[in-house]
């Protein structure tokens, strides 16, 4: 497929190098047209090297090839990223001052804009009108992602992640012009990793959770267009880009963060391994071994069940009526019952909408890259199996969550 990739003059231009990579690795022939302003952020040499094609932004280069007409005509798809306020305005008013705007006027195939700008610019009446005009003419304008912007500010205006733009572009050429990412406009809160319960300033009770599953879920939700809040307990993997990260240590800290974040979330996923118990007392000083005294005994007290409280908070709130609460269960079978029977009982006990069930042994699941799960639904649909890498399993879970949100009526 022939793709024209227009690059606008915003700092997010550097992220478009990854988008170009996704296109070329999928076998597409990409011609990059950077605006003059964008070359202040990323030089043309980068685009030539990564695309393997000559790069120009002038209608006066290679005039004999009539590029200002040819590129738009021949393109199966035109993608503009970052689509700045300036570029959206030029496209909406049909200006043709450079090679990119000429190409947009000559485009025969689908056109996708991936905006990036400061929140006030995105929300300005002028930009709103330009976006509406472009959409009314059949162009696809993605919603920008929400989160940290270039300065200290944050809000809607971040360039959607390269993977998100790539998937939207592929959907567009498959004829889905009304395509919106399945979780566009949704907020998803995900807890990940293992909590640590302090005993004294240097010791804690912890668990084997690596955080890989929660991070893979955060990436899958982000790629599905969601605004993602990751509540990160102890993790062995880094938090992904493009999600808001809040660090927590103990079950009590996670509880507070989860209940607050859930208040305005469409989905809450509790994939963290939460300690069921914590030491009744935390010593201010390091507990010493003394030969003259008996071995210390640690008394534990029960931690609150965060998942259950999230369900209670949702059920008590009118605003939370459509919220989906998803739990995880690490189960082993025994002589009393099999894994699914235990999981089914846990689903009913905790009251969450979906329960993702892992079958565990000591060598399974924790820290592993692959996984097999069963998704149980309180509404009673058939158990759904998903297996593969943690990325594949996470994508299946996020697809199921999107389906529940978009096609199943709100819960009572
Ligand atoms: N969970 C929670 N708060 C806790 C313990 C667990 O929110 N204090 C959440 C986990 O994040 C997970 C789900 O509950 O989504 C199931 O956790 P699991 O440890 O399997 O269940 P338990 O309630 O501990 O049940 P049991 O130990 O009896 O199997």
Secondary structure: elements and pairs:
Layout: E1 2-7, H1 16-25, E2 29-34, H2 44-51, H3 67-74, E3 77-83, H4 85-92, H5 99-106, E4 111-115, H6 119-123, H7 125-136, E5 140-141, E6 145-148, E7 154-158, H8 162-173, E8 187-192, E9 197-198, E10 204-205, H9 212-223, E11 227-232, E12 244-247, H10 251-262, E13 267-270, E14 277-279, E15 300-302, H11 306-316, E16 324-331, H12 339-350, E17 354-359, E18 370-377, E19 384-389, H13 390-407
The protein binds cytidine-5'-triphosphate.
> What is the residue-averaged pLDDT?
91
Please bin the fraction of helical residues: 25-40%
User: How many domains is the backbone divided into?
Assistant: 2
Q: Can you identify the CATH class of the largest domain?
A: Alpha Beta
Low-pLDDT regions: none
What do you see in this structure?
The protein is an alpha/beta fold and 412 residues long. The chain has 2 domains: 172 residues, Rossmann fold; 221 residues, Rossmann fold (3-Layer(aba) Sandwich), CATH 3.40.50. Helix content is 33%, strand content 23%. It has 13 helices and 19 strands. An 8-stranded mixed beta sheet has the order 12-11-8-13-16-17-18-19, with helices on both faces. The protein has a 5-stranded parallel beta sheet with strand order 2-1-3-4-5, with helices on both faces. A two-stranded antiparallel ribbon has the order 6-7. Helix 4 packs across helix 7. The longest helix has 18 residues. It is elongated. The relative contact order is 0.09. The mean pLDDT is 91. The site of cytidine-5'-triphosphate has 13 residues, from helix 11 and strand 16.
